[in-house]
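User: Please fill in residues for this 326-position structure.
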């Protein structure tokens, strides 16, 4: 089967799952299985591409397809388990309180989820649908597959550490246990890392004569990590953009000095030691510590009460760095 055919059926599978899920959810006025169907959609694409994309070298004997699919399934299975557990703990999902009774808006949520599933899965489908047969890994394959697995491991460990900390009563007011001592968003770092590595691993599966560099489909698969970064770094309803800014108010009200110190010493995304000594220009660029994440509380001076004017004040220099999801 051609790669185009495998991708086409993958789109059809995704549309079928998401639109069926929307229809049932709208009739029952529930969001209970939204995340569950998202996770199952990933697994369905993994199963289809593994079965439908076989060539003369069977899937079971192709280490590239096997390793890509196994790590992908582990990643998405964890996401499915974690989101289902979180929804259960929170007794629902407040994102849908204002939209699940609105046909158009509720449908958009399901369509966006389908897009996310399809775009994230592109490198995995690329590898499984390729006619290229390789029984051995190149050094580049080893490095990128290890990075893929490491990204999954980082995400799982940070999610578990955070969940245990929450269950223990949120000691200290904000999470600094384990990986959270070295990154304010280690779970998001793991998510981003794994899709960049998955895309790079797919390079050797290109069917193009000139390899991946000459393959527009492989370059198109780069939308997987780029879309992930956009969702987690820029969209206000989720990820870092949602955790930063005004949503840091609770930390500055309860633990102002402690949280300011944590922010100054801890990277917003990439885990490492010595973040305090990184120049601000680098933090605002290659380390993704963007100014839009800054907490700018609004304060009205007593003298201005009658003028209805509000002024904004910047945090002290030690708080200049941005805070993460806790």
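Assistant: Residues filled in for all 326 positions:
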């Amino acid at each position: 089967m051609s790669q185009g055919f495998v991708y086409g059926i993958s789109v059809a599978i995704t549309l079928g799952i998401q639109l069926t899920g929307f229809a049932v959810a709208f009739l029952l006025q529930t969001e209970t299985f939204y995340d569950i169907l998202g996770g199952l959609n990933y697994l369905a694409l993994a199963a289809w591409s593994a079965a439908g994309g076989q060539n003369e070298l069977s899937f079971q004997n192709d280490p590239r397809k096997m390793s890509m699919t196994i790590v992908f399934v582990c990643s998405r299975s964890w996401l499915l388990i974690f989101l289902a557990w979180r929804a259960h703990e929170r007794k629902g999902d407040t994102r849908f309180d204002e939209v699940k009774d609105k046909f158009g808006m509720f449908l958009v949520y399901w369509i966006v989820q389908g897009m996310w599933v399809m775009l994230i899965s592109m490198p995995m489908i690329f590898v499984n649908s390729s006619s290229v047969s390789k029984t051995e890994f190149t050094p580049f394959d080893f490095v990128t597959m290890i990075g893929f697995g490491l990204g999954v491991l980082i995400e799982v460990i940070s999610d578990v550490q955070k969940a245990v900390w929450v269950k223990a009563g949120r000691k200290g007011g904000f999470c600094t246990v384990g990986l959270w001592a070295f990154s304010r968003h280690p779970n998001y770092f793991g998510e981003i890392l794994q899709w960049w590595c998955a895309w790079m691993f797919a390079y050797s599966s290109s069917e193009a004569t000139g390899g991946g560099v000459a393959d527009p489909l492989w370059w198109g698969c780069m939308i997987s990590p780029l879309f992930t970064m956009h969702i987690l770094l820029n969209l206000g309803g989720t990820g870092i953009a949602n955790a930063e800014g005004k949503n840091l108010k609770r930390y500055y009200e309860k633990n102002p000095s402690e949280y300011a110190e944590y922010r100054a010493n801890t990277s917003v995304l990439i885990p490492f030691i010595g973040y305090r000594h990184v120049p601000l220009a680098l933090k605002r660029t290659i380390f993704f510590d963007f100014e839009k994440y800054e907490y700018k509380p609004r304060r009205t001076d007593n003298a201005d009460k009658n003028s209805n004017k509000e002024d904004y004040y910047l945090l002290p220099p030690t708080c200049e760095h941005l805070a993460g999801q806790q």
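For context: Residues 8 and 310 are 54 Å apart (CA to CA).
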